[in-house]
Amino acid sequence: MRPVIPYVTAALLFGLGVYGVLRRRNAVLVLMSVELMLNAVNLILITADTTVRAALPQTGQVFALFVIVIAAAEVGVGLAIVLQLYRLRATVAVDDVPLEKVDA
Amino acid sequence: MEDLSLPKIDYAAVAPMLILFGVACVGVLFEGVLPKAARRVTQLVLALLGLVAALSVIVWQSDTRVLTAGGAVAIDGPTLFLQGAIIVLGIMALLLIGDRAMEHGGAFVAQAAITVGSEADRKQAVKEQGATEVYPLTVFAIAGMLLFVAANDLLTMFVALEVFSLPLYLLCALARRRRLLSQEAALKYFLLGAYASAFFLFGVALVYGFAGGVEFGTIHDSVTESTQSTVLLYAGLAMIAIGLLFKAAAAPFHVWTPDVYQGAPTPITGLMAACTKVAAFGGLLRVLYVGFDGVAWDYTPILGVVAVLTMLIGAVLAVTQTDIKRLLAYSSIANAGYLLVGVLALSKDGLSSTMFYLVAYGFTVIAAFGVVTLVRDADGEATHLSRWAGLGRRSPLYAGIFTFILLAFAGIPLTSGFIAKFAVFGAALDSGEAWLVVFGVVTSMLLAFPYLRVVVMMWLSEPGESTPTVSIPGGLTAAALVIGVVATLVLGVAPAPLLDLTTSAADFVR
Amino acid sequence: MAGYLGSYATLGLLLLASVVVFVGAFSANRLLRPASPAEPIGKRETYECGVDPVGGDWAQAQIRYYVYAYLYVLFAVEAVFLFPWAVIFDRPGFGATTVVEMAIFVAVLALGILYAWRKRILTWT
User: Fold this and answer.
1) For residue B196, how many other CB atoms are within 10 A of its CB?
2) Which of A46, B280, B389, C40 is least surrounded by CB atoms within 10 angstroms?
3) Which residue in A has a C-alpha nearest to residue B179's C-alpha?
4) Where is the chain membrane-spanning (chain A) (predicted)?
5) Cis peptide before B252 (omega within 30 of 0)
6) Model confidence over C52-71: pLDDT tens digits?
7) Which residues of chain B are within 8 Å of residue A88 when distances are taken between CB atoms?
8) Tally of domains within chain A
């Protein structure tokens, strides 16, 4: 039996994240979209963990732990950079920050 | 669950990484406890000592060929060679980072949190010493790169990717001058980098679903033996390649490169151009040669197109640049293309010539950015190309050095650039990838034009009112420059020892 | 629904029950309430009591909240590594090495908090 629902959900989440990164002009929302992509990966890892014949048991779940921790570290660095730029632009309303160069 | 056991770790083999992570942690500790005045010298000496210690361990361990830490880390010929290269180039970059002779307080801002243009900012721009956190951050980045080229499974590779990327994002934002540009560069680099690493991770998850493991040995076995559908495998490999090619600055994942290279503090740009490139290609080599060599026939044409695109975009857009740092950025993109040609030879020669190219290019590019830090006016570095006109009259020595560096980039004989290009093109020809070599040679000729334009501009124009002065370099920058130029010359005149070294090191363990 | 989706049946039932409760409550409300409610002056204002709302909806938080929140998140998240470790560290074959490794991990985290403390991020003034 193939666990279709989690895989489809993960694919949708990842697609949503990709769409968010490409469409959003707001740096914080882009960051959130990236987090969405990482969570899709976590879902896949944990689902795959139950189905693949892995050499070691539960490896997929352990990978998910690593991904969560690294995502947290990434958010920390990212928010610091984003906040600093907002302060330098002397504006707090994120929509006013011209980020034309960001959405590549 | 019951068969868990503690993985054996060969501590001597992983010692270089442990030393550097330890040194970085001690650096953070010093940052907390030492008085401000003593920090800079202590941090610089500590970081340099750590790098030298790690390098000597690598030299001592040079015959080690072992899989350790439960198969997560592979210490073999390419690992040791690339780790050594990263450390040597890292030492040079650290010398540039540490120099404060050209500008009061160094190239880094003291308090990055102070708003640009405020009263406090004007005060700190002239008075305050630069932040000393850059040294631990740099060491963390270099240690992450060492782990990246040694990683023998995709998860370790991802962790290492983040460990070396996150400090680089922060370092990009710390320029003393033109802070807005620097902040924007950091934001752009971070967002695109996080995006690319999410793709990498998605690829890892797909490959895990295909192979049931992320170790390259396991992947290799499944690729050759598995009978199930290969959709997951190809999709996963494509996404992993996106993540790695982004770090390597290959087209079409290169768009961040010019902006980030321009905005980041110049010593950090040097670090990224040299060390990140070594790390990214080290990772790419291991993924393609060790993990996915079973599907080499399938990915070679696609990566070949990427290589051609990279060479063309780098060479063509370099012609139109008016800023020296952007020009060097596009040249680094083009060089990523030449490196891919070497990678795609998919042979022992391809591996050794790529490693040679990485080292040769690294030495030259750090020296190039070293010269860029010297050409300054009252507002900091004068990077616009028109300002470099007539520099040969002002300062024949540094204009001469830069001319030599540019000729090396252009691949003129008697420089390391010529030997390196010759080696990768030769390896690709032997493997029957002649079409890549044709594009490589054509774009090399195209790329020589912007280099020669700078040379002509420096020597044949009269220095005008706006021609900036060339600062007398501090001892550290001078040392980095001398190392870079001498290495470029020696590798061009007598490349045999390093070529022999790369050939003997070109053997992965699986 | 006995097969693969069977485990989702409970979830489906729960969702169904919540929809029934929600719709039921609002329908009952609609049926029981007076047909023409009173319209005293000021009923449609944003607030019927207290001070009038002034200014925009954007409030700027102190930057310190960010640092605190971030420190909390980091430590909370790093703690996930403690749980797998806690399951296995007393098994035969693990022993002192495992304890020392976790001690090093926690020491690195502690280094982070030491740095934050020395940079006077933890003082609230």
Assistant:
1) 22
2) C40
3) A88
4) 6-22, 29-48, 60-83
5) yes
6) 666 666 666 677 777 888 88
7) 115-116, 179-180, 183
8) 1
